[in-house]
Design goal:
Layout: H1 2-29, E1 65-73, E2 81-86, E3 89-95, H2 113-121, E4 127-131, E5 141-145, E6 154-164
Antiparallel strand pairs: 1-2, 1-6, 2-3, 4-5, 5-6
Length: 165
């Protein structure tokens, strides 16, 4: 009986550990994926509804801009990050508040808006929700869940205070 219980428990424990590792890897690797999408032609203030099509969110045109990013996940959190993008690449990403204000942000928070849009468009993930206000050039929030709809496997990117130029 003990052997049978261990056989049942070990694979379950392995799946749990694998899921946690995948979640942590998602915080730092940029390997987040997405499948639920609303086409770019119809940005909405509501979260996207499930769709069988691939993502079609448009890219953000400016190559030079700043914005405030909050990454919400079950990973080491840093608070809001001020991101400066130059020529389409992250030029700097610094902590916007707290005792380490001005310090370099963690690598998982060093993303351009187009990096975040690419995550929303990636067809390899289990579930994604996008909040894209009507008339806005950028999403307000992209939430990716690598394991169904479980909260501890989610990472959200919250975009605000976008300033082109």
């Amino acid at each position: 009986m003990t052997v049978s219980l261990r056989r049942t428990t070990a694979p379950a424990a392995t799946l749990v550990v694998a899921g946690l590792l995948a979640t942590l890897a998602g915080c730092g690797s940029g390997g987040d994926r997405a499948t639920d999408r609303t086409p770019a032609s119809a940005p909405t203030t509501a979260a996207s509804s499930p769709s069988a099509s691939t993502g079609a969110y448009p890219t953000f045109a400016p190559a030079d801009y700043t914005y405030r990013l909050r990454v919400v996940c079950y990973c080491p959190t840093s608070g809001p990050v001020d991101v400066k993008v130059s020529n389409g690449q992250v030029a700097s990403a610094t902590l916007a508040s707290g005792p380490r204000q001005g310090a370099a942000a963690p690598s998982y928070a060093q993303k351009t808006i187009n990096d975040i849009i690419a995550i929303a468009n990636d067809p390899r993930s289990g579930h994604v929700k996008v909040v894209w206000p009507k008339g806005s050039d950028t999403p307000q929030r992209v939430t990716v869940s690598s394991i169904g709809r479980t909260t501890d496997a989610q990472i959200s990117y919250v975009i605000g205070d976008v300033r082109a130029g």
